[in-house]
Specification:
Oligomer: single chain
Bound molecules: uridine-5'-diphosphate-glucuronic acid
Largest sheet: 6 strands, parallel
CATH architecture of the largest domain: 3-Layer(aba) Sandwich
Number of strands: 14
Distance between the termini: 58 Å
Shape: elongated
Strand content: 5-15%
Number of helices: 18
Radius of gyration: 24 Å
Strand order of the largest sheet: 3-2-1-4-5-6
């Protein structure tokens, strides 16, 4: 099928590459001509596993890039809108980019078009898109608007797209639903995974993918409610972790115990320094605004947000309790991305913490496997960027682990110990076993678990100040 995807951000670019991978002919439109030129040259603007391979495989063949939306619309029966929906100052979802695109599409409607909303948007957006298009001259019976939310996680977005838990199609007519079902058929009949050059199947992939067909309003709500629920799980376990710290229990053991109940599940129960990224913080606020507008005061979401914001401050107190004073301390920071596996630093709790530490007068030497360029744009020359984890650790008063990169979980502990001025590790992602860290000579602090100290000086090194 010939499809257009408007927007070449995380969702738009991944969707474009993956639709091409499923055998469709794809035009990816972006009004940023420099970005389009870079994509045409073969550059991959984001750090995303398997994306360079798919772009390489399909660029110039099944996948074309352009800045001309009108031409793309004329050539395609199905147009996906995947442009940004940032937060306004009061937490609402800013839909102005969606509106601009809807207006532009309406000028090129000739023959039947299905306009599909893929960005995360408040409930009823599909109906607004329809209204805007009609107001701008699109013939009422010539097009339909559907909702097809994405559940991609950055870092594993390509695998998530091609091996999804579910595909949600929100359509108010059979014709629209059938068109979208046709697009996803290789995933719902399992044929994609049987292809010789299919990307590797992740563990626990659900094949074939489950298809859920709903109204547009339900589909829009599914997306917001999913993200809000996942964020709630994270805030819940962070709160439980705080209690564990206070009473000397271990949150990992607690997670194992509660997560083995299939009604709860053990995924998304990792405590840390709080959730970040371009989705959860924004979507929680937007969902709260949606609820408010619909007349419901969703106070549970206020609390999820509050716990999350507090989690960073608690970690800062933990750093202080481990180091006593902060001013003038040289700190090695490993991880700046909002999580491991991505170069995205938007709403990254790691960046928030670095900012707080700088304000306290610390000197920060940071390293991230992929997010250095984007971090430099935010932090400038206020921090020193190191070449590797060990370089960052050189002569530092302590080491802070702030993103859960796999490579940070397998560092050489003797090498790290030799590099650090003091063997102090404060782990915001629980990447190491406390007992093992103590045995390797570290004073080790993590989230929701008991601290560990080297045997020889466990008595001289009491906790300097209570974290809470
Ligand atoms: C999230 C959702 O997981 C996707 O399903 C959704 O499609 C996407 O938002 C979106 O709306 O576009 P993403 O933002 O890429 O995906 O990242 P997650 O893997 O969900 O992590 C979000 C944050 O929560 C990160 O800061 C991560 O470190 C943190 N997190 C996650 C925890 O602190 N604990 C956990 O157990 C899991």
């Amino acid at each position: 099928m010939q499809v257009t995807v408007v927007g070449s951000g995380y969702v738009g670019l991944v969707a474009s590459a993956c639709f091409a991978e499923l055998g469709h002919w794809v035009i990816c439109v972006d009004n940023d001509t420099a970005k389009v030129a870079a994509l045409e040259r073969g550059e991959t603007p984001i750090h995303e596993r398997f994306l360079p391979e798919l772009l390489e495989r399909h660029r110039g063949k099944r996948l074309k890039f352009t800045s001309s939306l009108s031409q793309a619309v004329q050539q395609s029966a199905v147009i996906f809108i995947a442009v940004g929906t940032p937060s306004t100052d009061n937490g609402d979802c800013d839909l102005s980019y969606v509106e601009v695109v809807a207006r532009e599409i309406s000028r090129s409607v000739s023959g039947y078009k299905l306009v599909v909303q893929k960005s995360t948007v408040p409930v009823c957006t599909s109906e607004w898109v329809r209204r805007i298009m009609v107001l701008n001259g699109a013939p009422e019976n010539a097009f339909e608007v559907a909702s097809n939310p994405e559940f991609l996680r950055e870092g594993t977005a390509v695998s998530d797209f091609l091996f999804p838990d579910r595909i949600v199609i929100g359509a108010n007519s059979k014709r629209a639903a059938c068109l979208l079902q046709e697009i996803y058929r290789p995933l719902t009949d399992g044929s994609y995974t049987r292809r010789e050059n299919a990307i590797p199947e992740p563990d626990q992939a659900r094949i074939p993918a489950r298809l859920i067909v709903t109204s547009t309003r339900s589909a829009e709500l599914i997306k917001h409610a999913s993200n809000a629920f996942l964020a709630m799980k994270i805030s819940f376990i962070n709160a439980v972790g705080n209690i564990c710290e206070a009473v000397g229990a271990n949150v990992e053991e607690v997670c194992d115990g509660i997560g083995s109940d299939p009604r709860i599940g053990d995924r998304f129960l990792s405590p840390g320094i709080g959730y970040g990224g371009s989705c959860f913080p924004k979507d929680l606020k937007a969902f709260r605004a949606v609820a408010r507008e619909s007349g419901y005061d969703f106070r549970l979401l206020d609390e999820v947000i509050r716990i999350n914001e507090e989690q960073c401050l608690r970690f800062l107190r933990k750093v202080r309790s481990a180091l006593w004073t902060l001013k003038g301390k040289r700190l090695a920071v490993l991880g700046l991305a909002f999580k491991g596996g991505t170069d995205d630093v938007r709403e990254s709790p790691a960046i928030t913490l670095v900012e707080l530490l700088l304000r306290e007068g610390c000197e920060v030497v940071a390293y991230d496997p992929a997010a250095m360029v984007k971090s430099r744009e935010v932090l400038g020359n206020r921090v020193t960027f190191a070449e590797s984890a060990y370089d960052a650790a050189e002569d530092a008063d302590a080491l802070l682990l702030l993103s859960d990169w796999e490579e940070f979980a397998v560092l050489s502990l003797p090498r790290l110990r030799r590099a650090l001025k003091y063997p102090i590790v404060i782990d915001g992602r629980n990447l190491y076993d406390p007992q093992m860290m103590g045995e390797n000579g570290f004073m080790y602090y993590s989230v929701g678990r008991p601290e560990a100290f080297p045997k020889e000086n466990s008595e001289q090194m009491p906790q300097l100040r209570k974290a809470s």
